[in-house]
């Protein structure tokens, strides 16, 4: 009975942990800008549950789970409220511009109607001098009316362009925020996936570098998640500086990073070597027990595009190469 109870408990814990993954995936699909953080947070909660998990830990995890869902729902609601308001404002601007153009055209239509009546009246005159004077006056009025129409039209278009430019900048800012990993400021996983799909669809030669921090879990376990977040932010900044502005440097999740770059295997491998020289090294972290200096290194794996490749196949090769590199690094340390 004790064995059976233990099996039931482990099965229940596994089901509880699997719920985190399912909810995280659903949240990422429902609202990607807010879902990436939810997905990562729930994966971290899943790691809290293991065979030695206590009742206290389960209770705390349940509370953290509810907090993460509440945070995600607020962020998702705020995001969609903002998008709805922006679309509403843009539609309002377009409607106002259309209304102004319609009113202006009606006013000019009346003027042209009166002008036409006067020209028709001129045709009935018998005196040539009177006709000439009437035509001259009408031509001047016509030129004035057309000039004013052009000026009003240019002003309306310029005003509309200025207003739309403001909202274009705002929408681009929202898109940039939606494309960023909130913790590190790098490109988030969703945008990296999109770039991989775009490059492979275009059969565009490029390379992928898969990067994984060594011993990151130990940093979290020893110094706490705040120190771990501090390390990720510092490492991300150094990683970004080691690549070109045209390269896509992103956080894949946890302590894993992805770089999508133009260039063949040789060029990507050279860039990966720069990580060991420029990015690996000593980092200063603020922990609950004070300031700590830690030596940090990362394992890298490179894969270059081949005909028929998919994003999944490229990532798999890069991931395998990264783990091979990590194994060699461990052998070197133990030697």
Please give a structural write-up.
Strands 2-3-1-6 form a 4-stranded antiparallel sheet, with helices on both faces. Strands 4-5 form a two-stranded antiparallel ribbon. The longest helix has 68 residues, at 55-122. It folds into 3 domains: 2-82; 97-179; 189-334, Alpha-Beta Plaits (2-Layer Sandwich). The protein has helices spanning 2-30, 32-48, 55-122, 128-179, 189-201, 216-223, 225-241, 265-279, 311-334; strands spanning 206-213, 248-253, 256-262, 281-287, 290-296, 298-304. The chain is built from 9 helices and 6 strands; from the N terminus they run αααααβααββαβββα. With 335 residues, the chain is of the alpha+beta class. Helix 1 packs antiparallel against helix 2 (32-48) and helix 2 (32-48) packs antiparallel against helix 3.
């Amino acid at each position: 009975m004790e064995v059976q109870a233990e099996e039931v408990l482990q099965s229940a814990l596994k089901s509880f942990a699997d719920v985190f993954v399912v909810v995280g995936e659903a949240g990422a699909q429902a609202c990607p800008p807010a879902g990436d953080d939810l997905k990562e947070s729930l994966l971290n909660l899943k790691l809290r549950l293991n065979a030695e998990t206590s009742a206290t830990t389960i209770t705390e995890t349940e509370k953290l789970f509810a907090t993460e869902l509440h945070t995600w729902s607020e962020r998702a609601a705020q995001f969609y409220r903002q998008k709805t308001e922006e679309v509403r404002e843009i539609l309002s601007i377009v409607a106002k511009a259309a209304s102004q153009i319609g009113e202006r055209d009606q006013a000019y239509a009346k003027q042209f109607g009166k002008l036409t009546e006067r020209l028709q009246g001129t045709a009935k005159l018998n005196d040539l001098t009177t006709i000439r004077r009437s035509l001259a006056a009408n031509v001047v009025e016509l030129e004035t009316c057309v000039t004013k129409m052009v000026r009003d039209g240019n002003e309306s278009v310029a005003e509309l362009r200025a207003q739309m430019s403001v909202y274009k900048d705002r929408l681009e800012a929202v898109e940039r925020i939606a494309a960023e990993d909130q913790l590190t400021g790098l490109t988030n996983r969703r945008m990296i996936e999109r770039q991989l799909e775009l490059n492979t669809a275009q059969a565009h030669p490029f390379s992928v570098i898969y990067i994984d921090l060594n011993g990151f879990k130990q940093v979290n376990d020893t110094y706490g998640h705040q120190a771990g977040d501090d390390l990720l932010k510092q490492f991300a900044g150094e990683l970004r500086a080691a690549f070109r502005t045209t390269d896509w440097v992103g956080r894949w999740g946890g302590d894993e990073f992805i770089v999508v770059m133009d260039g063949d295997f040789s060029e990507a491998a050279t860039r990966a070597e720069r990580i060991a020289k420029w990015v690996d090294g000593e980092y200063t972290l603020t922990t609950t027990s004070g300031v700590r200096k830690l030596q940090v290194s990362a394992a890298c794996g490179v894969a270059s595009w081949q005909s028929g490749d998919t994003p999944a196949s490229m990532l798999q090769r890069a991931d395998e190469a990264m783990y091979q590199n990590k194994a060699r690094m461990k052998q070197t340390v133990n030697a």
